[in-house]
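To illustrate the input format used throughout this study, we show a single complete record. The first block contains the structure-token representation of the backbone; no residue identities are included at this stage. The design step must infer an amino acid for every position from geometry alone.
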């Protein structure tokens, strides 16, 4: 008697599921997880664990601004692998992709029309603003930031600060899944899709 096969059977049904799971796996790159982690690392010391003096308020505001700017701008970054296997990093502009790590030899190899397909689109701005708003919600919900800036608010505001990140995270995940982007930003796990 033959042993039953444990290998998964592929009858074409798993294709939509695979696409959905691949999109969900890349949400960590779309959501501002790295920026939020950096903010949560520095916020306790910058805010003096919520016991803010004037200098701590300025430091926390500067940290929030820098992380928010990085979160916004990282939505416009992209990467591609050229024909030689070299990985290039750049930022999207209205004319195409501005490459950070081009050598002069590389610059002659690519025509502008090849990099024009990476130009800015409307969905890039949607992703940038959603990521920015999501980061600001998480930053303002941090207990040290709340103690520093919102120490006098009542229980209604505390309840809002507690529940807002979960709702905003679910909404942004839904929006990123419904309106996917083709950007493969710096640090993106799946860079093989862009080849020039």
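Output of the design step:
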């Amino acid at each position: 008697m033959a042993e039953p096969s444990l290998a998964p059977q592929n009858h074409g049904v798993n294709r939509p599921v695979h696409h959905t799971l691949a999109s969900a796996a890349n949400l960590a790159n779309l959501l501002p997880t790295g920026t939020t982690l950096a903010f949560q690392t520095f916020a306790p010391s910058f805010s003096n664990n919520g016991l803010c003096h004037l200098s701590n308020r300025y430091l926390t505001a500067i940290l929030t601004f820098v992380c928010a700017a990085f979160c916004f701008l990282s939505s416009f970054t992209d990467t591609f692998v050229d024909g030689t296997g070299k990985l290039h990093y750049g930022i999207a502009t209205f004319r195409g992709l501005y490459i950070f790590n081009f050598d002069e030899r590389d610059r002659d190899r690519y025509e502008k029309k090849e990099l024009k397909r990476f130009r800015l689109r409307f969905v890039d701005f949607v992703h940038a603003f959603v990521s920015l708003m999501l980061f600001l919600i998480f930053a303002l919900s941090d207990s040290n930031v709340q103690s520093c800036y919102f120490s006098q608010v009542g229980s209604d505001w505390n309840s809002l600060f507690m529940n807002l990140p979960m709702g905003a995270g679910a909404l942004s995940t839904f929006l990123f899944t419904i309106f996917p982007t083709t950007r493969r930003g710096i640090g993106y796990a799946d860079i093989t899709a862009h080849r020039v």
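Structural context for interpreting the output: Confidence is low (pLDDT under 50) at residues 1-9. The CA atoms of residues 64 and 121 lie 27 Å apart.
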